[in-house]
Amino acid sequence: MMNLALARAGAPNSGTPAVAGNRLLASLPADDLEHLNPLLERVSVLAGEVLCEPGQEIRYVYFPGDSLISLLAVAEGRMTLEVGSVGREGMIGARAALGHDVAQVRAVVQRSGSASRMGRAAFCAEFCKTESLQRLLYRYTDAELAQTIQIAACSRFHLLEARLARSLLMTRDRLQSEKFYLTHEFLAQTLGVRRVGVTKAASALQQQKLITYSRGHIEIIDAAGLQHASCSCHARVADDVLVGMAANFS
């Protein structure tokens, strides 16, 4: 059972900037960001925490800083498949801006770290009256949809070893680090397979000297080789989604 607790690291109106390294927020005009800042709460999120569940009310929207959030589609309450991941380039709960008050996916913290959050009602109110936030969220949700479509196609048509390589590269892109921690259990949940499948795929990548993997600690030691072992989906997501976001944020 995943821990549902959320550790608070700050509070609204504390005087501390709540952007917390989130590029989506930081790309807003200074005046609009200054207006939003008192409504944002700095929080710390821990690996394994569930920020929202499908069918449950969206209470907050989240803007990750150095944390990483995995978005999982859930079938029959137990089977899962990652349909996206969100780091400092994005947000959790963007659909609230479209008038939806119920989550579609399970958002699980993949890497502990900081984030900023805002109550759904306050966020929707600001979205309705802030043009820069509207333009930004429209572009972001379009990029997020493109990512989801590509990952769905990848999950259906590509071999597990290539999908694992793609997933590890996407994690590296968002964390901007060659080293991170992911358990077999978590990787099995994100890839929608049994743990034994993850073990075999990870072992194959390790035997090719592309990664080292020990008790969940992963290090990419040959990024070019891992890119070659990956399917084309990583390059498409990186080029069409991440680069596109960065261009829009500048």
Topology:
Layout (H helix, E strand, L loop, with lengths): L6 E2 L14 H4 L3 H7 L4 E5 L4 E3 L7 E5 L3 E8 L3 E8 L19 E6 L1 E7 H10 L1 H27 L2 H16 L3 E3 L2 H8 L3 H13 L3 E4 L2 E4 L2 H7 L3 H17 L1
Antiparallel strand pairs: 1-2, 2-8, 3-7, 4-8, 5-6, 5-7, 9-11, 10-11
Helix pairs in contact: 4-9, 5-7, 5-8, 5-9, 6-7
What does it look like?
- With 250 residues, the chain is of the alpha+beta class.
- Helices cover 44% and strands 22% of the residues.
- It is built from nine helices and eleven strands.
- Strands 1-2-8-4 form a four-stranded antiparallel beta sheet.
- Mean pLDDT is 87; it is low at 1-16.
Radius of gyration: 18 Å
**Strand sequence of the main sheet, in spatial order?**
1-2-8-4
- Number of helical segments with 4 or more residues: 9
Low-confidence stretches: 1-16
For the biggest sheet, the summary is: 4 strands, antiparallel
Helicity range: 40-55%
Q: What percent of residues are in strands?
A: 15-25%
Sequence of secondary-structure elements? EHHEEEEEEEHHHEHHEEHH
Q: Mean pLDDT score, rounded?
A: 87
Separation of the first and last Cα atoms:
40 Å
Number of strands: 11
Structural class: alpha+beta
What general form does the structure show? Answer: globular
